[in-house]
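Fold this sequence, please.
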Amino acid sequence: MARLSRTKKKELYHSIKGARDIFGDEYRLREWFIERAKHVATFYGFGPIATPHLERAELFGTTLGGTTDVVQKQMYAFRTRGGESVALRPEGTAPIMRAYIEHGMHTWPQPVLFWYAGNFFRHENPQRGRWREFYQFGLEVLGTEDPVADGLVIHVAVLMLREVGLQNVLVHLNSLGCKECRAVWRKELVAYFRKHGNALCKDCKRRLKENPLRILDCKEERCREASTNAPQSVSYLCAHCKQHFREVLEHLDDAGIAYVLDHLLVRGLDYYSRTTFEIFFEKPGESAESDNSETKTEVGTEESEKKKLLALGGGGRYDYLGEVIGSRNVPAVGMALGVDRIIPLLREHGKIPKSLQEPPKVFFVQLGTTAKRKSLHLMEELRKAKIPLAQSLSKDSLKSQLRIASRLGVFYAAILGQKEALDDTIIIRDMDSGAQETLPFVKSIEYLKSKLRGKGQPRPPEITDEEDE
């Protein structure tokens, strides 16, 4: 008896963990946010820059710090067939500083202001608003140590969020000082944490020897508690750094930007100096444990209202990064917003613009090959007239296409059959009454515009799993 052969089940391919497909309304909403952010940034003098997704791994290992989680645990690094060690960019600042030095931008009028938008990559645990491939919009000001640049970057970042309707924004702020005053603070940190060594996690015990500032950035609860009474950087600032930080705060006061001083804020990368900041969205009345996204909880002074703070971005000053990359002193400051964090907030708080919500008002019915060919011209006229429409290229029967039009909730169906295509006419059908009128092709656009005037929005489309004929 012949043995029946087993057909191996074909494997279905899925996107890899931490990556995702973006399409439809989410894609349109993301592009809309980027356009609004670009509009604000351009108004304030920032110009565009794009850097490669691939850089030499050494660029990040040297600039971000060899003991940082980004370099040790999160960076996608590999060797090419030619033996070169490269990495998918985990952040945007180091590549932009590399470009500034490589292309001799120090000869340009200073400072140089850039905005950028694009994908970045880190091997993190995926959770709400955090992906291994993520999208950021950033600003960089290179070539000045003036505190007005720090204020400008923070101000423009907040304005971008306000531009899209996110008003409840709070900035957490700190100053890490310059090399000289930070060295004194570092010494005091080491002495403090040596006394509390048993309270630290395994990683932070190692950080105590390699880079004690990283302990302040640890997310482990016991390390956060141990850091509560740690020496504060602002207590060790030199006179010049104190004045710099004071002027940054004055700029924020003048701009009406809400902020709090956060003495545990050191950010996760080694290149930061002086000003560091994070930008949060305040969500009053929500428990901090409602999801796994990166949050802080703040207790307000009035009525002790708990507020959940959702991190949307951050940045700071990096005056020594240029020396590390190219032996050139380039004072600079920048920030990046996490677009993947912002888009869900826009949905959650009803900030989706009407231009993205506008449903089709006309369904274009095409019957036959000649009609389908001729329909392209009429659809273009509808587009020029800004009349939203829908169509179904794969359906040939009138019944199935009208059924789809009904489900979509459109006001009218524009029916173009073989006869109408030859006669240069079109049938306009009222989807509520069923009444139809045949019009010359050239008059149909104005007819639809007059009929749709004052109609408002169509009803929401019906959701159904039923297959059309």
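Residues 24-43 form the longest helix (20 residues). The chain has a mean pLDDT of 86.
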